[in-house]
Amino acid sequence: MALGISLGLWQWERADDKRLAIAVRDAAPTLVQPTEQPAQGAQVTLRGQYLAEQTLYLDNRVVDGRVGVAVLTPLRDSFGQLWLVQRGFLATGPRRETPQTTTPSGTVEVIGEWQEVQSGGPLYGENREGARLQQLSLEPWHASLGTFSYPGWLHASEGDGVLIPWWEANVMPPSRHMGYAFQWWGLALAALMVMFIGGYKLRRDGADKKALVNKNKQR
After folding, report:
1. What is the DSSP letter of 164?
2. Strands 66-77 and 82-91
3. How open is the CA angle 126-131-133, to the nearest 5 degrees?
4. DSSP code of 34?
């Protein structure tokens, strides 16, 4: 019962957190060639040059039933700032060869949504296997490029070199968390009812047993 109440409260708090996350994302600004850290969810326009030779691929993406990768290419903007651009989905099928894609040269312009660095799930083995990454991270470029200007990446949706957009912000609606909260509280209520019914039966059985003992003594 205590566990159900606690988990219900936790889900209720997560609903509040999701309301805040949605409000922050809805209020995010539109930025053109920013020179400061973008806010989470900001629509950002970048102009600069892709570093095509530094392209890596986020493995195990699926779009419309097709297996592939997400293309990750660093971009040096006109101010010399270094950004990581997630350019979209590239279908590869089940083959494990190194993916191949073309990257525009010269000055390009891309538009997308900014996402701050997110903690990944558990990793089983190394993150990088050849040109493929198991998790989206800035770390694989540190040895060759140094530190990116800002901790995050741009999920490009339009512009030069942009492929099939696939990423969407993973913001579960608050109503779902509230539904989970009521489910946990319902289970806690059920546990309480079972406890009362079980206690009543135990008391009744104890009383019946005591009455039987007294009756035997009277005989």
Report:
1. B
2. antiparallel
3. 45
4. -
The residues near 109 (Cβ < 8 Å, ≥ 6 apart) are 45, 46, 47, 159, 160
DSSP conformational letter for 97 = S
Return per-residue pLDDT of the chain as tens, 219 residues. Answer: 888 888 888 887 877 766 776 666 777 789 999 999 999 999 999 999 999 999 999 999 999 999 999 999 999 999 999 999 999 999 998 888 899 999 999 999 999 999 999 876 677 778 999 999 999 999 999 999 999 999 999 999 999 999 999 998 765 667 777 787 778 888 888 888 888 887 778 888 766 676 666 666 666
Query: What is the rounded CA–CA span in Å between residue 171 and residue 17?
Result: 10
